[in-house]
């Protein structure tokens, strides 16, 4: 991951490592008494970037956009000639000028974002949402020690990176199909069960069971699955390949 977009993320990785907050996992959140989960932090970050002025949004997307100055330029992301240092990442610098040259190819930022000139604000925000996810996955790839999990993160990193570049919708496909893989999904199955089993109760009691079911789903969502490496070490079964597929 040595392209301009990846290099631009290096200061964030250094800052996260120094503060001990890198990664895309659940962190120190307690499923029963949840603090600010990674998903909530990502949602907050997405709200922040959606509130950026248009110029700042284009700069952020330019990092993930190929240069269109000429057919011969192979630069696949604008690189800030004056990148912020790791110690100043929390400060919101002024948006770069569209005439600012790329540190990699020398062409202007405008040459990297020309394809976004007439794109709607909703589409810009959708792409920015994927940028936030890519940033989180980038740090997760570097933080994760388990090889199998790292491969999953890296696959998603490359998928979203490509979708930003091509302005396409991310589609996760494999031998199991596409998410959520089964219908109804687990959440809907649990809620259906609660409705079937406890619909005869008084409203207050029924609401209690509903809240308990949500707590169960939160715990299930935070459950860390055994990695394929751990599974192979624990069992003598010959289904390690099938387990790795399910895990992925």
Automatic annotation (TrEMBL):
Region span, Disordered: 1-50
Residues covered by the PCAF N-terminal domain: 41-248
InterPro entries given in the database record: GCN5, PCAF_N
Source organism (scientific name): Xenoophorus captivus
Protein name: Histone acetyltransferase kat2a
Short name of one Pfam family: PCAF_N
Cited PANTHER family: GH11602P, HISTONE ACETYLTRANSFERASE KAT2A
């Amino acid at each position: 991951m040595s392209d301009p977009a990846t290099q631009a993320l290096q200061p964030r990785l250094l800052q996260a490592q120094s503060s001990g907050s890198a990664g895309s996992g659940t962190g120190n959140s307690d499923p029963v008494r949840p603090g600010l989960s990674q998903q909530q932090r990502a949602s907050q970050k997405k709200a922040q970037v959606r509130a950026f002025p248009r110029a700042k949004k284009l700069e952020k997307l330019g990092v993930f956009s190929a240069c269109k100055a000429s057919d011969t330029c192979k630069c696949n992301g604008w690189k800030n000639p004056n990148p912020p240092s790791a110690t100043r990442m929390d400060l919101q610098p002024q948006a770069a000028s569209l005439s600012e040259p790329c540190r990699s190819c020398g062409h202007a930022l405008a040459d990297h974002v020309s394809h976004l000139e007439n794109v709607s604000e909703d589409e810009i925000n959708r792409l920015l949402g994927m940028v936030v996810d890519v940033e989180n996955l980038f740090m997760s790839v570097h933080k994760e020690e388990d090889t199998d999990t790292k491969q999953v993160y890296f696959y998603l990193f490359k998928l979203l990176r490509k979708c930003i570049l091509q302005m396409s919708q991310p589609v996760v496909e494999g031998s199991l199909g596409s998410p959520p893989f089964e219908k109804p999904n687990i959440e809907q199955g649990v809620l259906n069960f609660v409705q079937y089993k406890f619909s005869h109760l008084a409203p207050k009691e029924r609401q209690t069971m509903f809240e308990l079911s949500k707590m169960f789903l939160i715990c299930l969502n935070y459950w860390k699955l055994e990695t394929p490496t751990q599974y192979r070490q624990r069992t003598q079964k010959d289904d390690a390949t099938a387990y790795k597929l399910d895990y992925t």
